[in-house]
Specification:
about 350 residues, 17 helices, about 0% strand, two-stranded antiparallel sheet, single chain
Length: about 350
């Protein structure tokens, strides 16, 4: 697989064209930080200024454009989607006990779990208010359903932490809810703005879902293959957090009984240490599993092609994404969407 740190030409051209609108999205999000509580602004600015790909606002705008809409409502909905995404990041870092986010200290590591959760709640509320202000009941339903699905996904993942018996079906249930549903919602919201038919909306939503699955699969492969500078966090964080992602799941299916016992034992050890360390304060990942303890797991994932086959699976979802929007008019917008899906599995971070 060819790895790239920059988007392909079709997507780069679209991003340049959308840049003024994306700047409006940034301003709109910061306008939502106004509160009597200064802490909301401080934590909000910390999270928003850490950057990110802003993939979800781009999806809203490109999907709307593909469906014939280029009006001002895109900015409001795109900002609401990104506010919702930001809320999930604040909550996810608390659930995952993460200390780093995009190469910077996570909000919970600076302000503590309780404040991070409450400001995440504030972001959820502001995102919801923005959708209500737009006034489209279809978009409002998409948002409320997405929040429900993401919460279910987080619970599904948490309940199976450090469990080597996780199945592919369970894994896909998690990433479809936790990751793919918000990208699907972003794309479908853009389609709603375009006023297309229900069938066309479903195709756009399917595109977003398949892109989201591909994106998450690549993330899970990068956790084993990437470096800390690219990832913005320590590599192998998923294993230390007890997440049995596809690279490890494939390895567990293919390895010998003795190798499976080794992995299972290390996951159990990581789970016990996490439980003990959690009561003491912030957890350093090397305390959960040291590099020496991780080495056998990483070696087995490499030997059993866990990374390569996860990337191959991601590419299959990219093909499905392209097929979902194939009936729409050919042109620069559809090409940019397909390029976005393709870039999701060829990125280095």
């Amino acid at each position: 697989m060819a790895i790239s740190s920059s988007p392909p030409p079709a997507l780069a051209t679209a991003l340049t064209r959308l840049e003024p609108h994306l700047q409006q999205v940034e301003r709109t999000m910061r306008d939502q930080l106004v509160s009597e509580q200064a802490l909301v602004g401080a934590i909000g600015e910390h999270v928003l200024s850490s950057g990110g790909k802003r993939l979800r606002p781009v999806l809203v705008m490109l999907a709307a454009e593909l469906c014939g809409y280029t009006g001002p409502r895109c900015v409001q909905i795109a900002a609401a989607v990104e506010m919702l995404h930001t809320a999930t990041l604040l909550h996810d870092d608390v659930v995952d006990l993460a200390n780093l986010r995009r190469g910077r200290a996570a909000a919970r590591a600076i302000w503590g779990n309780r404040r991070a959760v409450l400001v995440g709640d504030f972001f959820y509320a502001r995102a919801s208010s923005m959708v209500v202000e737009d006034g489209d009941l279809d978009v409002l339903w998409i948002f409320s359903n997405t929040i429900r699905l993401m919460a279910e996904g987080e619970l599904l993942q948490l309940e199976a932490s450090f469990d080597p018996r996780v199945t592919e079906a369970h894994y896909y249930s998690v990433i479809e809810r936790k990751s793919a549903t918000l990208l699907s919602a972003s794309a479908e919201s853009g389609a709603v703005l375009g006023g297309v038919t229900r069938a066309e909306r479903r195709r756009i939503a399917e595109f977003g879902k398949e892109l989201g699955l591909a994106f998450q699969l690549r993330d899970d492969a990068l956790d084993f293959a990437g470096g800390e500078e690219d990832l913005g966090k320590q590599p192998f964080t998923d294993v230390r957090e007890g997440k049995v992602t596809l690279p490890l799941l494939l390895t567990l299916k293919r390895c010998t009984s003795a190798e499976r016992e080794l992995i299972s034992g290390l996951l159990k050890t990581a789970g016990q240490r996490t439980y003990e360390l959690e009561a003491e304060g912030p957890i350093e990942m090397d305390q959960v599993l040291s590099p020496a303890e991780l080495a056998p797991i990483v070696e087995l994932v490499l030997r059993h092609r866990g990374i390569e086959d996860t990337d191959r699976r991601a590419e299959e979802h990219v093909k499905r994404a392209a097929e979902a929007i194939a009936p729409f008019p050919d042109g620069a917008t559809r090409e940019a969407l397909v390029a976005a899906a393709d870039y999701s599995v060829h990125r280095s971070s």
